[in-house]
């Protein structure tokens, strides 16, 4: 069995979740604090979009945006020397785009459930908005944020369609676990496919349980 | 950290490649990327690539396997493939027209047969290809995107069965789907390549498509990608695929040499 | 010299909140019925609620001005507001909650820089002063009501605001602890250079702690006066009621020095000029004095028709009506020990409150 | 342009969301109230699984479970005369399985953020657990639940891989919008693809915004 | 006849909560320092908190028994518990919050069936009685503290529990409203057939409303007695303090009828037998009487060395020490009007509280 997909998938999912986590939270915070209800709803709709597109189609669009011949892809290549499409960064990109809506949406719901008086209390105590966010809003929305994190991580780990499109299925470079599973299945090697599926399941299970455990420990204050 | 390493590795690879072409030193290591239809993956990975690498110790071959249509798009968008092998001529022709594949390197290497299959334990009494009309549901490849689908449609159209069959057909987005749907009995029958049918014993082949039903047989063309930086090595690989020992391997996997 | 000048208007659902007062350095107590807008006023000053129009400023800074479109953030106002429901951070221990007040005052304020080292110590001191020892690492859900209130109080005090707004700071504490902490707060406020505003339902607390008292009616300040003066001579019916006058009756002038309490059916003589806008009179329950049957006084003596007696721990309350013209009830309070029901009661002319 | 995919997709997504919504909430409630932390974590991991599997793989599993030769599929066929594979119900099944984790996870996070004192208050007032759930827990967790609903709906609407596997791609019967888009894109008919994508986007946008609006109206009590 | 018998033990972080009391029909007031476990006790009875061991029962039912493994759900206990922080449902209006209490009592209880029609009316009545008119459709976040408390109170009362547990029911209300609602509650409780328990920090409230009073120390009930008796003759130091005795000193017996208050440096004569376990004496601030310089009394007269004066609205407090042996402070209270500092003060032998 080839172990490179495991490594690639782990690297991809980890890199993606770090990015998604913070960007998703930032978007959520931004949208929650919007004044205009209408703008808010529109932004919400836009941020949820990637979820509704079939991943392969999303992959197509990504390819049209980040392909080496397209302006943005070219820009990255010329100025940063980073080739996005068909490289490891493309697997990360695909995972991020496809998992962002979950992170964003869960974080938003969680933020909305936090008692606003706590934020006001922080303000009158002179805490900066930054530290109010990290020390009050974030910890008190943790359950929901973590839900989003778990969803986003799992989605990133399982991302297949967009990845296959924009990153390709290049063994040892961009072949993630889901792609490896696909390859095995396509070749009729169900035995090999099951092995990879098992690894995928165990991996996600470990991470999800780990994340649950961390929150459990962290949220001592909630337990009576 | 990981990202940086990766791009660095890419850089060094690129510079090395340039050196190779300049000095044409046989000893310089070269990495080739082959983009091939998914149905070729196992013949490549298990036999052909090891054989080729043994003969040419300085060349390493990696593969990316997916549906031909997707690979076509990816080559259009600049994937760094050196060799492209498609499961149908349509994709190859398009790329040649767009001058993304060198026209004179293209070889129509293999031929594949399309066959009517049912589940191994099917009780349906199907005898020949035209019996497909007896099945209640049929799994086909999507003619728009899956090569085997194009051939299925062509064959059925020529047999005058397309309208009847398409009304009860599920158009799979890839061959695996078709195969599994038939194997699991979701579809009573389906049309796939003979090579696909050979990958599993859960389906049985009823009949090949009648010889006259296809204007052109299902061809697997191979060619060198124009943007390749290792054309020499790429050509070497294409040539290797045409050798007798390679063809023998292909035939083990159910392909037929195109003459 | 710091001042707090407040003048704003805010539409609420049931009424308009319309406040207008100014105070010098010192302590202001706010008394008012439940739901009259006390907490809203404090929130508006703290910057939690934005008024519709008006201007709020201290000597140093303008907090809010609808005309000039100024509206400082709560952080910039440096106003400490004790939430009526405490608003402790559930994810922080008692010690962290208190420390959350400190650090930020420091980071902004260079002169507190030197105190950086003794943050821990400051927290420790406050925890001791507010009798929270042993609870440093408890989370708020596991605190009792009074413990939560003390933590919130400590958190506000440590943040060294320019203005201190306390919304019922002792409501969840037992009387013993309350008195101790009132003294504690009193001492702290003595060294505190800014204004402070205390909302309370306990008039003794206001009397003890505040130099000035404001009385609020539905959504506006009716009276703003020195505390001592207000308690001794409440000029308004609401003030009398809120400063603990149990007996209030509609009244009408019947002569130059005579007044009729229409609710009770009693006439009283008054030793002062009777003001024009008079519409109520008030008599504190303690001010009815039992009159001997043989007493020679004829003025302001009421024959007693007793209606009920209740006994508080150290007091004895008699509910009675005018025997000759029974109408509304009057309350009379006596210390325990002098517990006979008198035949008649008498009230000193000077003790009768004339109210608008 | 063929309009049947639109109709099929709408029917599928609606049927799926109704089921997912209630089942997801039920699972969330069940897991939140579990006593044993470890069992809880394991259940959580299991319920999150479908998210990590590439949809095609999930489709395989579904096919292996509900295929006409497999016990469950057979059971449905023999007793209810319902052939699940290759039917409209299969599209719904695929959408449900793939969107359930989001609903479950979001609802769970939301439930955990509700002040338990409210539930106790309901109990001492003699409210049944059922009405405590619907009248207290649910409304107070609405932000998070709605996030889950939106995610699940969008995911159901966009479901592609598993649907293609178990329901097939039968025009007018099981061809959903994402499948139609995929066909068009794969065939290089970007014109036709854009049309469907547009419809997909508009549709999801309308529903998401509608759901947002409903919560906005419903949650008047949160606004100050 | 309904009884409430409570006997349980629960480990808390800082101490063990160990309660043991039984009461007949009637009202029990609980007094205790902040954080001593009052709310926890009520929560345990209501079934919100499960004790470690013990037994809780009423005449009709066993709520909890660790030995028999009985632990009824809160629903089955039919205990109304007023949360100290109200726990109003944020998603329901005032009217719905109150109605949330009604319906369920009805659904279970057949005899309320006939009242089904007047649910609306019942809610309306309560809204009026608790002066919440105009707020029927307001959501809790938009209520003032006192309005929230009244809503919670109405919600509990309407649910017709067998046992009523009120945790500081009037703490957020102004004195005027508080008295009105105390009367309102008193009337309701008169028609109420079950037990009720009221936790309060206001001893007058307890005195007014409760037939029995329980005093709690850290985690256990120290005293359980008839209210009147307890307030008149508190036998324990804590009881004396909580019933408002300001002057408490360590004491030692120096003769058969003589005692020394070590904190004050004063000796007192006592007209009773001095009990063995005596360790404190207490004197209420009101019980110090100014003594004339020429007064003939020699017993229990203390020469006054004044230390401070504070004036409450209707009272005047003198802080003094024993002039001949200055040690700890004593408090003396007088009604306003008699405000000279006396040379000496005297205390009646019978007024001296001997405390354990
Ligand atoms: N966020 C809000 N929006 C609109 N109206 C509110 C809001 N909060 C409170 N109110 C209403 O404004 C009035 C004043 O509320 P406020 O909290 O200031 O009362 P309060 O004087 O503090 O009373 P209490 O002594 O009971 O705490 C009340 O009638 C209340 O219903
Ligand atoms: N959930 C809990 N778990 C553990 N300890 C708790 C919990 N809740 C409260 N405590 C602790 O138990 C003690 C008693 O709390 P309780 O709330 O009963 O006090 P209380 O007598 O009601 O005080 P107050 O008058 O301040 O409301 C306190 O010391 C508190 O810190
Ligand atoms: Mg208030
Ligand atoms: Mg309490």
Automatic annotation (TrEMBL), chains A, D:
Keyword 4Fe-4S among record annotations: no
GO CC entries: plasma membrane
- Name assigned to this protein: Molybdenum transport system permease
Query: What protein family does this chain belong to?
Result: Belongs to the binding-protein-dependent transport system permease family. CysTW subfamily.
Q: What does this protein do?
A: Part of the binding-protein-dependent transport system for molybdenum; probably responsible for the translocation of the substrate across the membrane.
Residues spanning the membrane: 12-32, 44-67, 79-100, 132-154, 193-218
The species this protein belongs to is: Muricomes intestini
Is the Membrane keyword given for this protein?
Answer: yes
- UniProt cross-references to SUPFAM superfamilies, sorted A to Z: MetI-like (SSF161098)
Q: Which PROSITE patterns match?
A: ABC_TM1 (PS50928)
Organism lineage string: Bacteria, Bacillati, Bacillota, Clostridia, Lachnospirales
Report the InterPro entries cross-referenced here. MetI-like, MetI-like_sf, ModB_ABC
Q: Which Pfam families match?
A: BPD_transp_1
Q: How does it sit in the membrane?
A: Multi-pass membrane protein
TrEMBL record, chains C, E:
Instruction: Quote the SMART domains the UniProt record gives.
Output: AAA
- Name one molecular function that GO assigns to this entry: ATP binding
Domain of life assignment? Bacteria
Q: Which Gene3D superfamilies match?
A: P-loop containing nucleotide triphosphate hydrolases
Please state what the protein is called.
Molybdate transport system ATP-binding protein
The family database entries (Pfam families) matched by this protein are listed as: ABC_tran
Which InterPro entries would you find in this protein's record? AAA+_ATPase, ABC_SmlMolc_Importer, ABC_transporter-like_ATP-bd, P-loop_NTPase
Q: Which organism is it from?
A: Muricomes intestini
Q: Which PANTHER family match?
A: SPERMIDINE/PUTRESCINE IMPORT ATP-BINDING PROTEIN POTA, SPERMIDINE_PUTRESCINE IMPORT ATP-BINDING PROTEIN POTA
Q: Which UniProt keywords apply?
A: ATP-binding, Nucleotide-binding, Transport
Q: Where is the ABC transporter domain?
A: 1-243
